[in-house]
Amino acid sequence: MSEQSRPTGPRQLPGREGTPTSRAAMAVVGVVVVVGVALGVLLARPATGLAGGGMTMTPAATAGGGAGTTTVTPTGHTTEVTLHVSGMSFTPSTIQVPVGDRLRVTLVNSGDQRHDLVFANGATLEPLAPGATAVLDVGVISGNLEGWCSLPGHRQLGMVVHVVAIGAPAASSSSGSSSGSASGSAMPGMGTTGGTTAAPTMADLQAEAAALPAYPAQLPPLDSSTDHSYTFTITQQQDPVTAGLTREVWTYNGTTPGPILHGRVGDTFHITLVNHGTMGHSIDFHAGEVAPDQPMRTIEPGQSLDYTFTAGRAGIWMYHCATMPMSSHIANGMFGAVVIEPDGLEQVDRSYVVIQSELYLGANGQPADATKIAGLVPDVVAFNGRAFQYDAHPLTAAVGQRVRLWVLDAGPNAALSFHVVGTQFDTVWTEGAYRIHHGTATDGATTGSTGAQVLSLLPAEGGFVELVPPAAGRYALVNHEMSLAEKGAHGVLQVTG
Ligand SMILES: [Cu+2]
User: How crowded is residue 470: how many other Cβ atoms within 10 Å of its Cβ?
Assistant: First the structure.
């Protein structure tokens, strides 16, 4: 490899000018470090899935470096705090220190990779190996102060600690941290800005998912009937996001997603829609063809309508509220799926349904923030309505079983690049047709030896994939748009021997 053609290594790499070989080696090391940090989040901990961590949280109380920038009278007292590492978070993530106290932080790296700790006032602890402990003198605290891990991406994933200066004059605190709010707006995962809510940390989302039952992902079994009748009752209710944060959800029958319906081509579905909410709502079933005017009309609270359709074609068809703005009604939970099997679909050992959707958090207890929705950047992304729930409550299968995953992207906005870590799909059916069936491409070009790594879906697209897990293990289900996986579009298929 010539000097000219060799990739340029990171410029900040330490060390002197060396031979081409040693510089190349350093460049490789640099690449390995960068890749290792990036992949470490998702791939280095297959046993625990997306282990810990969180996303950027910027509560109004974090005013930045106050220590050393404001004149205070030192108390002569030292506040001692021990920080641990949990996944990609510091615990505790908020430290309260009387103003004028010196702060000494003992960092215990209880995580499984290196972390450092730097504060906005310049106090810095060098990177600590897993299992190591070190003490940092942060200095005399004169105002609110933020600290973080400065390793690439760690701060953005939630490795932030907020020092709240108790008794600091208002000028040294931000507007959000005036008296009495230190334990409110600075609560982990609950940072609020301008009446809306910052993205919760990954750790807080995972903890809540573990504390709650999972939405059942099993495809409901077919019965022999060709005529199906359901009542869909619309509700508006609270749904927890983290231990300290709820959102208002709008549902069909109290869950988001709503009920998963299952039938065959030619089946007829009779839906009675009843609005028990506080505003107008409606429903639109993609699974049947109807003139929209009457069945998809918006009904006011207390009203009902009948919606009948015949499922003429196979697919996993979205349904959703069609009341404007549809983006908000879908983002607030009003969506679900109708699975219509292709004729002759073979029996498999396991059938699951995975529906992706996005959360754009409004203020605590409130529905989604429409401005955020319009901005297309979700705070949280979910499989079957709740982030990370199948990490805590995995889907299950046994080695050698054929697993079929019906997948729908409910949106309202984000795409889904559905991948199951460690596997390949030997069967892919999407939007009306097989692309691959048991390893054979439908154009006949490849017979018995082809496969796929993702099922890629835009909002309202759906399909199914099949895989046969080769060995026992925890197989992560991810949106391979990795930032969306890190926001919750992540789960686990637990395979036993
Ligand atoms: Cu609605």
Answer: 13
